[in-house]
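so my prof wants the structure for this chain in the tokens format not the other one, which i didnt know existed until like an hour ago. anyway here's the sequence
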Amino acid sequence: MNAFVLLAALSAPTVAQDAPPQETKTVVVTAKSLKSTETALNACISRKCPPKEEIDAALAHAENLFVEGEYKTARRTLLNTIGRVDKYAAQYPTEVADIWRAQARIASHLGEADPMRIGQFEAIEALKAGLDRGDARVLAQRLEIADVFAKQGRIDAARDGYMKVAREAEKLDLPRLQGTALLRVAILDNTLAEVDPALFGPRSRASINRLADTTDPRLAAYREAARLLKVRNTVKSDDPASIDRAVADYTTQPTARPLLVYAPPIDLKVFDQFRPTGATTENRPMQNYDGQWIDVTFLIGADGKVRDVELARESPKLDNGWVKPVTDAIAGRRYAPVKVPDGIDGIRRVERFTLTSFFNDRVTGSRMRSRTAPRIETLDLTADAAPTPQPAKDFSSAPTSVPAD
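here's what i got, hopefully its the right format
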């Protein structure tokens, strides 16, 4: 197993079914043009429309900007609206939280670690302004904050956050939040066990079994996720037959939607050329992270194998050096057998991949910003979101982040 697959599961939606309905703003290629969403937002601002309407318009326009690769403009659009609507959090807690969360998502693709973290904390403050602190939506946002800690390498803080939500969700009888939190702990511990099996292996097995041994019928989907983790751990990257065995061991019948069983790691050794001997950080020129994104389409066949991996769109300044490792990793994925409608070859998916790196603003003796290790942020642009616990990525759920080293 590898960090790509396990960290992908951290992107599962965290707004629990136990919570009141909450709007989410999915980033997909929409029918509305960039010009039309810009016009709609400007008109809304000009007539001083209600905060909720401006938030909706800003999110729609930022979505279009993001899809077009205009990350900085998209984030600036959201920040401008935040400046006008943040004071209405008590009246519109979920909407204000949505826009803060969206800002954090885009910040992650830009490598802005502090704005990413701050956006998630501001989102929970917005929710607390208008909702009870025991509300499921507040607990769900606490999971988002723990996700940020995990992305930034603050493993103890992340794990502690997940466990606190799991305990509180159980106390409040919110099973899907409880299951999501326990699954995140299992994924995190399993990822650490891959790096150091001797140190983290026992804890990983305990975390997986903690979830697998639950008896609440409402946690059945999460028990299946724990079983999937166990199956994935039997896969050996250098043994294709073990992938087939893992799929066979897990699958009982074709799934309605794609369920990822195995994914090889994205090999970014291409960046070794930028590292001096013994270096622990990435020395790739900072400007070479700007505008580095691709949209990849691929087909999942009825047998769960991936084919027809194609580059659908790319940024104008694309450095092709990192593209092949991404497409190779996608081609090597295996999904559970899936139900494919008659007359088509498979299920088409599209995902955005952004090459980025967190800024390091704390370099002693210098005011110049530097970059840390390269990473790849992903976002699923497929219109139909897969059900929990299969990862689905949108402005309101954490994007996958894959360190290159």
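also thought this was worth mentioning. Residues 257-405 form one domain.
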